[in-house]
Amino acid sequence: MSTATDLLSRDSGLLWHPYAPLDAGALYAVSGAGGAELTLRDARGAEHRVIDGMASWWSMVHGYRNPVLDAAAHAQIDTFSHVMFGGLTHEPAIELAERLVGLAPEGLRHVFLADSGSISVEVALKLALQYQDACGRPERRRFLALRGGYHGDTFAAMSVCDPVDGMHAAFAPLASEQLFLPRPPAAERTIAGDWLYDEDELELWAARARRLAAEHAAELAGIICEPLLQGAGGMFIYPPRVLQVLREIADEHRMLLIVDEIATGFGRTGKLFAVEHAGIEPDIMCVGKALTGGYLSLAAMLCTNKIARVLASGGATAGSALLHGPTFMGNPLACAVACASLDLLTSPGAADSEPAPWQAQVARLERGLNSSLAGARKLPAVRQVRVLGGVGVIQLHEPVKVAEVTRAAVACGAWVRPFRDLVYVMPPYICTDGQLQTLGTALTGAVSEVHGG
């Protein structure tokens, strides 16, 4: 077996890593994983046992080497691991679609299985365009999005990401020109569950949003947003009332409301889906990340029966087919693991009064993160600490020294991946109280060591 030194050397200049130059390489090599922990080795060969504060970019909610998910994968491999979805079907895909429809907000009744979150957004945008075309409104070719948003790295998804402050500004000339609303006012949720925000600011934002939407309604096919929590755009939390305003605008102007629940879905914000905080129903919803418990790449797009019926009627250019079909669409292995993951999240408790597993887990995460990150509020380098469900964020007054903070956190027993001015965690749901305390202590200590206590 290759040493960590050898692996890191071979990686550098050979493999690109996310949002990094070719020669950036990696800081550590992974030699093992189990539960909420990773075993890392550095370039000197030293071993580090750390809690994965990232849940492998927000997806590994049940932890590594979960016996239920392992068993589901083995059982499906012993049957068949993949088959084309064109003209064929299979039980894992059907069961998963039925489960998603049963869990999703009321009205979402049809499912498109995609390879990844970005692709589910692409499909959602395509569907909205085809829907408007079938309704006799082919001139509606643009989308209304929020500043600060992030929806993926493929071209249509890039076009609805923040055009200035996002990660895709370099591609602006090639991406479709969409229309952007200002970022909504910030909000915080208290431990008691109350939402705190400036109501006057929100009313001003809502008035501007309504005015802009009305001015461009004739060219807008839909509205897209990350509900409540903008992830890669800065772990920014906004009030549920914003979603209600967007729903009202969409209804008034015959637009479709698309919610990107790829990061927020399956309990991360304290509700099974973030739109539930606002009590609204979207027309289209995208899910991914935690869908398979982090085991395999899979996402889904869900839509209402109304949209499906209109699409079936055809249109001037699109016809009645939803024009997308990935090679690995409905992959049986991924679908089987996703069904097992949903079982772990939602299986009923011993008594009707008991919460679903995800509810108890995320409530524990929220309590633990509020407690363990409290000390960071006292650091002079820290601008704000905020917690929402299973998300804990330390925002600094300056950009994070990423490599230094990462190494300092690893030395304290936590794996994190800071960005911009943020040091944050979205840990596995299975983290214990002790592990949450370790995460909070590690983040606070790393910020204090690198940016000053």
TrEMBL record:
Catalytic activity: (8S)-8-amino-7-oxononanoate + S-adenosyl-L-methionine = S-adenosyl-4-methylsulfanyl-2-oxobutanoate + (7R,8S)-7,8-diammoniononanoate
Alphabetized UniProt keyword annotations: Aminotransferase, Biotin biosynthesis, Cytoplasm, Pyridoxal phosphate, S-adenosyl-L-methionine, Transferase
Lineage: Bacteria, Bacillati, Actinomycetota, Actinomycetes, Micrococcales
UniProt name for this protein: Adenosylmethionine-8-amino-7-oxononanoate aminotransferase
GO terms under biological process: biotin biosynthetic process
UniProt xrefs under SUPFAM superfamilies: PLP-dependent transferases
Chain positions of site Participates in the substrate recognition with KAPA and in a stacking interaction with the adenine ring of SAM: Y19
Positions with a binding annotation for substrate: W57, Y150, K289, G325, R417
Pathway: Cofactor biosynthesis; biotin biosynthesis; 7,8-diaminononanoate from 8-amino-7-oxononanoate (SAM route): step 1/1
Cofactor(s) required, per the database record: pyridoxal 5'-phosphate
Main function: Catalyzes the transfer of the alpha-amino group from S-adenosyl-L-methionine (SAM) to 7-keto-8-aminopelargonic acid (KAPA) to form 7,8-diaminopelargonic acid (DAPA). It is the only aminotransferase known to utilize SAM as an amino donor.
